[in-house]
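[job 4471] stage=fold_predict status=RUNNING
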Amino acid sequence: MPMPPAPARIALTRQISSAIERCELTYVQRAPIDIGRARKQHQDYEQLLRRLGCQVETLPEEPELPDSVFVEDTAIVLEEAAVITRPGSPSRRPETPSIAGALARYRKLLRIEAPGTLDGGDVLRIGRTLYVGTSGRSNPEAIEQLTALLAPLGYLVRPVAVRGCLHLKTAVTQVAEGRLLINPNWVDRADFAGMRYVEVDGAEPFGANAGLIDDQVIYPASHPRTAERLQRLGIPVHIVDMSETEKAEGGVTCCSLLFSAAGA
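[job 4471] inference complete, writing C-alpha cells
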C-alpha cells in the first residue's frame, strides 16, 4: 500500500501547567483561572489546528513553569533554522530546553544569548522580513543578535516600537495576504509600509491577535465585533474560546509554534 503523504505543517504545543495561576502578568489584572476549563479549551484549540491541516505535537506539562503553554515565546521557526529565544522574564527561561529538543528534530538551532532578551510573541514575520517589537520583554541587544543570525539566510529584521501592551503580536498580526489586523493605539501603521489594515473595534483593544494558517484565521471568541469586521472582508474566521489562557495574558498565536515539516 502507498504511504500516506507527510503532513505539510507541524503545530508544536504544550499541555497547560497546573501552576498557570502563578503566571506572569503585566497589562492584565489577575483573575481566577479554571484549569479544567483551560485544558478543555486548549484541546479544542489543538483540534482546530488539526482541522486546518496541522500535525499537532503536544509536549507534556511542565508543572513548575506556569507560562509554559505559551510556546510561541520560546522560539522563532523559519524554513532554514529555528532561533531559540531568551525570554524577557527570567521565570520563563527554563521553558526553552524542551522546546529546543523538540525542534532539533526538524531544524538546525540558533540561539539568542545574554544580555539579549527576546520573546517570540514580539516577532511578526511577513515574507522575508521579521518585525520585532521593542517591548518590555525584547531588547535591542537581542534584535542585534537576531539580525546577525538571520542576515546570512536572507532575512531582514526591523525593530518596531510597542506601547501599552505585552508583545508586538498583541497589537498587530497578519490576517490575509498584504493585510494586518491592528490596534493603532499600541503600534504605528507607518512601521509596516505597503500593508492594508483592519482596525480592531474600539471596545476590543486586545482583539489584534489572530492566527493565520494559509488563508484561514484562528480568532478568539472574546472579540466578536472585530471578528465580524474580518468576516465582512471575506476572511475565513474560525472562532475558538480562549477565555482562561487570556487571563494569563495569552492569545491564539501564543499557544503553538507553526512550521513546515520539510524545512528549506
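[job 4471] summary: Helices lie at 35-51, 96-103, 140-150, 168-171, 224-232, 243-246.
[job 4471] exit 0
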